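Hi everyone, sorry if this is the wrong subforum. Our group has a chain we'd like a structural model of before ordering constructs, and none of us has done structure prediction before. Sequence below.
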Amino acid sequence: MTYKKTFIKLMDRTMLDCAQATRLITKQLDDRLNLFEKARLKLHLLNCNFCYNFKVQSTKIDEILKMTPEKLAENFNETYQLEPGIKDKIKNQIPKNK
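Answer:
Right subforum, don't worry. Here is the predicted structure as tokens:
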């Protein structure tokens, strides 16, 4: 077997598709990945911006969901409320049942 064929065979075994990568990203939020899974995922994330963004977003969502209410309050300095009059404008835009 030539080096090229061996390399291609090795890459086929180690490269993940996006579905496999997202499963490992999700698994990583709750469990530890083994060394081989970590390496495969890292290799995929270097080449796939979609999965990289999914990992960043999933990690952030997981961090927020694990926060206590007190910690959430510390992280969000402002209370988001509608400006005066906006609530009435929204109500007026909703069709009324006849």
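For your construct planning: The chain has a mean pLDDT of 83. The radius of gyration is 23 Å.
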